[in-house]
Every structure is written in C-alpha cells, then in structure tokens.
Specification:
Blueprint: E1 2-3, H1 7-12, E2 16-20, E3 23-28, H2 32-41, E4 44-47, E5 52-57, H3 61-68, E6 81-87, E7 93-103, E8 106-111, H4 116-125, E9 132-135, E10 140-146, H5 150-158, E11 170-177, E12 180-187, E13 196-202, H6 206-214, E14 219-221, H7 223-232, E15 278-284, E16 295-298, E17 301-312, E18 317-324, E19 334-338, E20 344-349
Parallel strand pairs: 1-3, 4-14
Antiparallel strand pairs: 2-3, 4-10, 5-8, 5-9, 6-7, 7-8, 10-13, 11-12, 12-13, 15-18, 15-20, 16-17, 16-19, 17-18, 19-20
Helix pairs in contact: 2-7
Length: 358
C-alpha cells in the first residue's frame, strides 16, 4: 500500500487509517463532525500528498494541452490556474484536474490519485516531439489549508501577505525553515466551499510544513470530513460522481467547457438535448442518509441512482448527489431513496448546498 510522507505523523496522532484507493490515509483524528466544524469555523489542514502532479513543458506545451484538455489553455497566464477535464475519445470523463501555468511554455497538471498512471499514459500516447512530460508526483507534497482563517494562518507562518491573491491564482515563495531552503507554490483553491489554499513543495519538507501549521492551531482533517465538506459544496468526487461512464453534460459541467477550439472527445460529448440522466442534489430531513448506489424513485418507479450521500453537519440534515431522468430534475421535486427498508423522502435542491468562498 502506498504511503504519503506524512504517514507516521497521522499514526502519531492516533488517526484511524484506511485503504483509500491503494493509499493508507487518515479517515479521521478526533472525529468527522469536529474536524468538519473546525474547517468551517476556523482552519483545517489536509494531507493531499496522494494526488498526482505532472510537469508539461516545451515549445509545443500550450498547443498540446489545448488539444488534450477541455480547459482554455491558450489564454491561461502565468500565476493562474483553471479547472477542467481530461476526456477519452468517447467524450467521457477520464479525470478532472487543475492546470497551473508556471510560465509561457511550462505547466503543472494536478490529477486525482487513482487515475494518475492512466492519465500519464494517455498524455504520453499523444505526446508531440516538442513537449516533455515529467511525472513529479513522488517528489511533490500537497497540503491544503482550508477555512475562514486559512489566509491569516499562512500569512503568520510565512510572514507574507496574500490579500491580493485572487481565486484560482497562485504565487511562488521561497522560505528558509530549519536550515532548509523550501520553494512553495501557494494556490488560492480548494475543495471545501471555504476560503482556502493548496500548498505544493518538495516532499522532503512535508513534516516541517505540517508541524508549522498545526503548532499555530490548524486542525488535522481526515478523509471523512473532507467528504462531508466537499459534498456540502456540491463538488463531485472523481470515480464516484463522475467517471468514464459519464460525459460532462450529464454532470452539469459544461460551464467548465467554454472554449470553441477542438480537443479530444469534444465531438462525442452527449448533446444536452439527448441526455438520459443528469446530476442533481437533494436534501433529506433528519440524519438518515442516502448511500452510494441506492436507487432513486419517483412514485415507486426507479428514475436514477445515488452517487454520494451523507449527513451535513453544517445544514443539520442529510444531503446527496445522484443521476436521474432529466424530466424529474426540477428544483423542489419530491423523490424517494430506496434504502432496502422504508424509503427516504428527499427534495431536489439547488446546488451548491453551501458556499463561503470569497
């Protein structure tokens, strides 16, 4: 099983460790609800070192990525990053990712852990001669600092100002810590629906950086709270709420595909008029939750399937995502969740359920 550079720290904190896609990861420390509220009210720290990172550089890097990704690469400037998708030939989602423009002819792709090698081979398969692809996943650490006090704690730790750093922008800093010169990318991004930042740096500095923030009050947050936080923000989970069996149109993701230039899979994206299912969000009164792969019903007839579900500590009700027949997708429509026992009544809701990104 793969381990992140922070594995021993998690064990020292008596975290409950689980197998997460072949990685030994902390699911919780003090408890999911406590870690969730710490992020919403103060600041949480997340080990995201299992994610993959590729450097794409060379004279043809911009044109190459423009062909491979749904993201508008040709207008992406240094200091900026964008969310988008890597599609297969059939127009289905192979992965969602963020592309960072490091300089005019150099980019960093940040991909999900499970499809890292699949993504890499897909890129290499289409690699032109004037482009170099470097997998830097093993030597790159990623720690997320999220919550309303995330900017404040980063400014304190690194003695910098981030007030001018806009959403989906990044800046690089160089700091000397414990006689080590450490270069860090600080990205104004995150997966919680809160003010937040993602930090990239050499993996050898992982424990140093982690301890700097936890000694200042950042609360360690595991996969459990990470899931409830992202679900409240209606952020899809790769391999669960999206994947190679669905197109961006089915997931309501076409707002992230605005460029007119050609890219792999573009011509095979399911037209909106032909959709047989669409991603919706729903709420359930009380603490009983829908679970992945439960059937969604309307008047006892199956109309779709749940992809994510959990109790929402912030909203104090249960929430979920699922794919259903579009004709039943209007906001406030009453649906049922087949639990195998008594069905749960749910109401289709506006998404996101929660957002405090400023």
């Amino acid at each position: 099983m793969h381990k992140t550079p922070l594995n021993q720290i998690h064990k020292n904190l008596n975290a409950k460790m689980v197998d997460f896609g072949g990685w030994e990861m902390p699911v919780q420390y003090e408890g999911i609800i406590a870690e969730h509220h710490a992020t919403r009210q103060n600041v949480g720290i997340f080990d995201i070192c299992h994610m993959g990172e590729f450097i794409i550089k060379g004279a043809g890097a911009r044109d190459f990525l423009s062909k491979m990704l749904t993201t508008s690469i040709k207008s992406l400037k240094p200091g900026k990053c964008r969310y988008g998708f890597l599609l297969n030939d059939n127009g289905k989602i192979q992965d969602d990712l963020i592309t960072y423009c490091l300089n005019e002819n150099e980019f960093m792709l940040v991909v999900n852990a499970a499809p890292t090698q699949t993504d890499l081979q897909w890129l290499i398969q289409h690699q032109p001669k004037d482009v170099k692809i470097i997998d830097v996943s093993n030597e790159t650490a990623k720690i997320d600092i999220q919550g309303p006090k995330s900017r404040e704690i980063i400014e304190q730790v690194f003695k910098i100002s981030l007030k001018e750093l806009g959403y989906f922008s990044w800046e690089g800093i160089a700091v000397e810590i414990e006689n080590q010169d450490i270069e860090i990318i600080i990205s104004r991004t995150g997966y919680t629906g809160e003010l937040g930042f993602e930090l990239y740096f050499n993996a050898e500095a992982s424990e140093i950086i982690w301890n700097l923030f936890t000694t200042k009050g950042a609360v360690p947050v595991g996969l459990g709270a990470r899931d409830t936080l992202r679900l409240e923000a209606s952020l899809p989970l790769s391999g669960q709420d999206m994947g190679i069996d669905r197109s961006p149109a089915e997931g309501n993701f076409m707002k992230f595909i605005r460029k007119t230039s050609d890219f792999i899979g573009k011509n095979n994206i399911t037209p909106t008029s032909q959709l047989k299912e669409i991603l919706i969000g729903f709420k359930i009164d009380g603490r009983r939750s829908a679970r992945h792969n439960m059937k969604i019903l309307k008047d006892g007839i199956e109309i779709g399937i749940v992809t994510s579900g959990s109790y929402s500590p912030t909203l104090e009700c249960s929430i979920g995502l699922g794919y259903i027949d579009p004709k039943y997708s209007a906001i406030d429509t009453i649906i049922e969740i087949d639990t195998g026992r008594k069905p749960l009544q749910a109401t289709i809701s506006q998404m996101p359920f929660y957002s405090n990104v400023k």
